[in-house]
Amino acid sequence: MKVLIVGGGGREHAIATCVAKSPKVDKIYCAPGNAGIGQIAECVPIGAMEFDKIVAFAKEQAIDLTIVGMDDPLVGGLVDALEAEGLRAFGPRKNAAILEGSKAFSKDLMKKYNIPTAAYENFDNAEEAIKYLKEQASFPIVLKADGLALGKGVLICNTLEEALAGVDEIMLDKKFGAAGNRMVIEEFMTGREVSVLSFVDGKTIRIMTSAQDHKRAKDGDQGLNTGGMGTFSPSPFYTEEVDAFCKKYIYQATVDAMAAEGRPFKGVIFFGLMLTPNGPKVLEYNARFGDPEAQVVLPRMKNDIIEVMEACVDGTLDQIDLQFEDNAAVCVVLASDGYPVSYEKGFVISGLENFDGKDGYYCFHAGTKLTDKGIVTNGGRVLGVTAKGADLKEARANAYAATEWISFENKYMRHDIGKAIDEA
Length: 424
Hints:
The protein is α+β, with helices and mostly antiparallel strands and 424 residues long. The chain has 12 helices and 22 strands. Helices cover 29% and strands 28% of the residues.
């Protein structure tokens, strides 16, 4: 098979690494890819939102399966564009990707089908939102830009003043662009966050192993929200009891709800869960693999990823027995100091060769570029250093040891990824 992966981050590097292990695959392309992906795939200089060019390339190269990794092209309808030309694609169509593309849509869906989530209201008018906030008796409260905002469009406001400023930021100042044309205001939930990825074929769902992300930029969950500073899998807080509840009231219920709405979902549903004192509730849905969750979940998957993805496309996922290794993995993101606000690029990265041939260790490239000087930093999140271990503590120790193998100017990371493991 010839496979095309659309995207150029750590998630796509993790997907490409998994695809490269499949005996079904002879050739991997990636658009646009990055320096790390370029070591296992042929990178082509086409942007993820250049639909016409992607479709033309897939036709010219007789691509057997296109895997769309990123949220923007999924929400924009890249899968529809590929399928319209008779090409096979893994990922939800536009009318299903709205599950991530509009938080207002997903909240309304959960309310309609009694899927547990936080109490909320939707607003497309700043004055109405302000009026609503002034009527609230308790804070903190959560403001969410309706559309895609690179994982950063969520504000937790501890006071009314913060919330009013947040409305200005999202709806009037358009900090998150058009994503802030509408807004969700919801109750602040307390508890442990858990990420659960799943494969879906429109009717059947297969749950992957659990993970937990660290969104804040600084140690102790301080600082600004980011795309993710590290993650671990499995989550010790995702118990058999939690799993049973979610299977009964959340997972299949979401798939059935989308089908009932005439929006059958094929691809990956990412369930962002909050384990509240009143049971698990949905924080958010994503319509693709999480980043960096994919970096700890996919290395632990035993199945041939191409077989699973083809089953999703063909509606035969019920025939797949999804299996994961009985171990753990931890990913620590090496970022450029100053991320997620401002940072410099173009610093030479050294030590990447230390990962060659080391079983259970991975260095997933996120923001890198190949230049005459070698591989250089080319983004806020630069690398995802991932390691496996017999258990979470061993995996964490291995991952942090491996971060020392890499050096570049302005290298920054959190030092408490997976610290919650110690409390489990």
